[in-house]
């Protein structure tokens, strides 16, 4: 049996931390695309590897043998090992497929609910009468900015414009699609879960930069974010209330980092990489992703050869 | 007069700003008060035009005030649906894939750091 097929399964443990490291030093938009692309490549490769592990074991089943016109089971390795691997990989595949289907259905339902908000007038703003400051972008056709009266009152008019510009950037950039892709990829491989938090941060930073450009004042955008966060915290009685903890609300505290990045005070909390190290890590990541994809393809072609042999053909001919 | 930059923005974006000012106010506002509330970033005529458009769409109501009108926001269908959905989503732990919040929750260290950043930003 070929060990090539194990590479896509193990690669995420190496590539995901590398991707996070590279994303931390990239401009936000590019970081978001890198993290999403890495998540998708690694998720697809590792899922393909599982399929490739199932096939040799399945060839011992008479029904599969008839269907594949196999004269004998695939000679992919010692039969007990092949069958055991196929059973484990099969179980994982079934579990993943179920999780993916459930997640995709839930996302679709949420979006459908979101679109019902767009009925009525074509106002961009959907105001919710609630004293607790809160604001978010609601994707749909067209997308909406949902904001509470508490948030509107907590901010000065120019700060409100910065908030709206931030949410417009989320909607125009279709950031929810990238987040959903990373969310689904994380269900495919546990190591890919680590990519969601940096992706969320990169998307917030991208929207912050867009907001700063729209209002033409980085300090104003920084103040809007900071005051909104402090207002949300300062509401009496809210501390006890359970506010949904999203991936974006990681304990690492992304808000001060976002404000610091806009103010250019460099309090990112993460030591900067030297250009040389940066190139090395970026190169390593590229090698990881390529290797992951190539080994999946290589393992597939290897399996194809085994199938031809099992069908009684002689590939050497 | 408002500055040219603000006037050139798409109508929908200007409407959001005006609507937000009405929601932030405790009472109905005349076009003049709206203009004031927005810090004079829009011309008075622009504010009046936007308010009439919002009124035609049913997003705001108005009452007679002196020689003109004072405007306040209506809770129309999108607002009501949004409120229903807001409370529904507040129960849901896993909404990150669809919605991204403007600000996430702060811990004590975050708050301290944020205050010092904002103070520094304002002084500098």
TrEMBL record, chain B:
Keywords: DNA-binding, Transcription, Transcription regulation. One of its GO terms (biological process) is negative regulation of DNA-templated transcription. It holds the Pfam family Penicillinase_R. GO terms for molecular function: DNA binding. InterPro entries: BlaI_family, WH-like_DNA-bd_sf, WH_DNA-bd_sf. It comes from the Bacteria. This is CopY family transcriptional regulator.
């Amino acid at each position: 049996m070929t060990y090539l097929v194990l590479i896509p399964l193990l690669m995420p443990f190496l590539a995901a931390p590398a991707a996070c490291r590279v994303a931390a030093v990239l401009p936000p938009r590019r970081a978001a695309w890198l993290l999403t692309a890495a998540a998708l490549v690694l998720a697809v490769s590792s899922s393909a590897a599982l399929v490739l592990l199932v096939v040799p074991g399945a060839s011992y089943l008479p029904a599969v043998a008839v269907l594949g016109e196999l004269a004998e089971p695939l000679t992919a390795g010692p039969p007990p090992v092949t069958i055991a691997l196929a059973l484990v990989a099969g179980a994982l595949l079934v579990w993943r497929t179920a999780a993916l289907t459930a997640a995709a259905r839930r996302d679709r339902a949420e979006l459908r609910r979101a679109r019902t908000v767009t009925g009525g007038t074509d106002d961009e703003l959907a105001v919710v009468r609630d004293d607790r400051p809160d604001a978010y972008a609601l994707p749909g056709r067209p997308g909406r900015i949902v904001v509470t009266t508490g948030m509107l009152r907590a901010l000065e008019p120019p700060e409100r414009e910065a908030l709206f510009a931030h949410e417009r950037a989320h909607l125009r950039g279709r950031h929810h699609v990238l987040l959903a892709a990373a969310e689904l990829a994380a269900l495919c491989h546990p190591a890919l879960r680590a990519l969601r938090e940096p992706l969320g941060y990169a998307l917030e930073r991208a929207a912050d930069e867009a907001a700063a450009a729209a209002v033409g004042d980085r300090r104003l955008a920084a103040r809007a974010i900071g005051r909104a966060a402090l207002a949300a915290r300062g509401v009496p009685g809210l501390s006890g209330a359970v506010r949904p903890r999203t991936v974006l609300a990681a304990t690492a505290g992304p808000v001060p980092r976002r404000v610091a990045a806009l103010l250019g005070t460099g309090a990112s909390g993460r030591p900067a990489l030297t250009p040389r190290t940066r190139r090395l890590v970026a190169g390593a990541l590229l090698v990881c992703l390529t290797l992951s994809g190539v080994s999946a393809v290589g393992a597939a072609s290897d399996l194809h050869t085994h199938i031809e042999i099992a069908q009684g053909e002689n590939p050497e001919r | 007069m408002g500055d040219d930059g603000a006037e050139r923005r798409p109508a929908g974006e200007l409407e959001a700003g005006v609507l937000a000012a009405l929601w932030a106010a405790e009472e109905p506002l005349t076009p003049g008060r709206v203009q004031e509330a927005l810090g004079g970033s829009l011309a008075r005529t622009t504010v009046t035009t936007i308010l009439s458009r919002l009124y035609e769409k049913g997003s705001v109501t108005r009452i007679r005030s002196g020689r003109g009108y004072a405007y306040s926001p209506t809770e129309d269908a999108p607002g009501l649906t949004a409120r229903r959905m807001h409370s529904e989503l507040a129960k849901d732990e896993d909404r990150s894939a669809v919605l991204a919040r403007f600000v996430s929750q702060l811990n004590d260290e975050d708050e301290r750091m944020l205050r010092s950043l904002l103070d520094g930003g304002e002084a500098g």
